[in-house]
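anyone else get weird line breaks when pasting these?? whatever heres mine. first is seq + tokens for prot A
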Amino acid sequence: MNFIEFINKYLGKKVDFDGAFGAQCVDLFRQYVKEVLEIREHTGAVEGARDLYINYSKMPLEQKYFTTENTITARYGDVAVWDRTATNRYGHVAIFLCWVNADKMLVFEQDGCRQDGAKLALRDKHNCLGLLRRRK
């Protein structure tokens, strides 16, 4: 399955990959990894989305399948990871489509707080820790 097929399949739907805590942003990430990137191994449990980037060096399977990249090098299909905020201690993860301008990116995401399903959204690059890119 390619990324556009993935978006068409899940747009507006709640994705609960692990069956815990409802439809979280990490659930959409896990589904993307399985269906689009075709990685069958689970890369490891995290407390929050930010841990995918912050704890990268402690996650051997994540290191096996992904490299970390700077946001400025973002490419279609990369996984963007944001740090915690005052209102969200877990951070956020979304799949990058394209830059809209110097500060805004178009992503495919799911909001675990709102529980409103997968959607296309504009996200500010501010507070973005970096990217995970599938190793070739």
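and prot B, same format (seq, then tokens)
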Amino acid sequence: MEHFIEILRDAIDMDSASGLEGSSVLAELDGWDSLGKFMLLSALFSDYGVTIEPEDLNAAVTAADLWALVEKSRQNA
């Protein structure tokens, strides 16, 4: 999950010193907007070869929820 957190941090343009972790609430993150979501989807496809449906992405509450979606998509691939 550590690599995933780095990808998320880069996608939403967060400082690397931030306290981003699995329990972080996405809606409370400054960069969690339509551009940040697009950048994350693109990075997840590039790094993990997975596609996350937008409705699933929007239903995720925490970073750990997003990671669970990535894991599920990797298992189904």
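btw re prot B: The chain has four helices and no strands. The chain has one domain: 2-13+24-76.
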